[in-house]
Amino acid sequence: MATITHLSETKPNLSIEELLAGFHPSYRFGEVSFNTYRPDPNQPSQAEAVTKLKAFAESVGKNNSGSFLSKLFGKKKETKNGIYLDGGFGVGKTHLLASLWHAAPGRKAFGTFVEYTNLVGALSFRQTVEVLSQYSLVCIDEFELDDPGDTVLMSRLMRELSDAGVKLAATSNTLPGALGEGRFAAVDFQREIKTLSEQFEVHRVEGEDFRHRGLPDAPEPLEDAQIEAFAQDRYPDKTLAVDNFDDLVAHLSKVHPSRYRQLVAETDVLVLHNVNTITDQAIALRFVVLADRLYDKDVPIVASGKPFSELFTPEMMSGGYQKKYFRAVSRLTALAREGQVGEPAI
Q1: Which of 137, 109, 106, 141 shows the shortest CA–CA distance to 123?
Q2: Within 13 Å and on the Cβ side, how many CA atoms surround 180?
Q3: Rounded distance between C-alpha atoms, residue 270 and residue 249, angstroms
Q4: What angle do CA 220, 27, 108 make, to 5 degrees?
């Protein structure tokens, strides 16, 4: 018999140690390695990325500042403290970054750009620097460009970590020197972006953007009176989180996004009553974070109400945060197809 819980009644309370323990590759990349990455023979940059990252992994934990004599005579070794993978969707950047995390020695952290900004929000900037300065490697996946304030914050965080000797690795779809190009003209922002680009050796990973094909078709929502019985029949031995959509949305505003991973930690399947369109941007951005954590854990969704293709307003889907919303809709739709059709989410 299925176990029934409610996310809207769950109040995760994590210590700093427990919060930091969540900074590791998600379930989907929990056991990947450089050996499981399959470079496209027609794209030599992919094999080159593996070679560079293997060498970078070996440098983690080592002092790359040069010998005493080289310092004395002004011949400091010019070695950048970070590596940056640029490339389109579906070329394996997250796989490569997770492989680096698994291969590197010492204490290390792996999280998305949003998870690090949320960590700063939970701990404060100074405490985040103090804590992460004790790590040998910090990996930042999916560097995002939507908010100049967050990008400046992350640039400063990485600069201070680099100064403390922490190795940095990041992925994005835009070269670091081009972050914000044509969008944010503030002088301070541009200065921070220049500083950010100087932290990394950039490697472009070429390949077919095979996942950028538009949104998958959303499954037809189920009748509301049927969804709990449907979920219990399909998942009889799982833990089902059963929530009214509005109750869950209201609860998210009371839980810091840094704790969303813990919020869904015991959930095998999410059952949502009466999904509707979110019209408040702040709430929508919180739901984007929840969608990422559900996708990381591969939590199937059974839902009634509107399909996830209508979760955000048309203005949101075409506005400055459209990349976030597009990703959230794509992931939630994939999880709904898994929960209602039995099609694995990829």
Answers
A1: 109
A2: 21
A3: 14
A4: 140
Burial degree of 179 (CB within 10 A; 0-12, 13-18, 19+): buried
Token pair for 201: 């050796």
Residue in this structure with the two tokens 């003209």, named with its chain if needed? 185
Give the global pTM: 0.79
Helix (H) or strand (E) holding 326: helix 322-341
Q: Can you give the pLDDT of all 346 residues of the chain as single tens digits?
A: 899 999 999 999 888 899 999 999 988 899 999 999 999 999 999 999 999 999 999 999 876 544 444 444 454 445 678 999 988 777 889 999 999 999 999 999 999 998 999 999 999 999 999 999 999 999 999 887 667 778 788 888 998 999 999 999 998 866 565 555 544 434 554 566 676 677 788 898 998 754 444 556 778 889 999 999 999 999 999 999 999 999 999 999 999 999 999 999 999 999 999 999 999 999 999 999 999 999 999 999 999 999 999 999 999 999 878 888 988 998 999 999 999 988 877 6
Question: How many angstroms separate the CA atoms of 265 and 261, rounded?
Answer: 6
Dihedral angle of Cα 181, 171, 113, 59, to the nearest 10 degrees:
-120
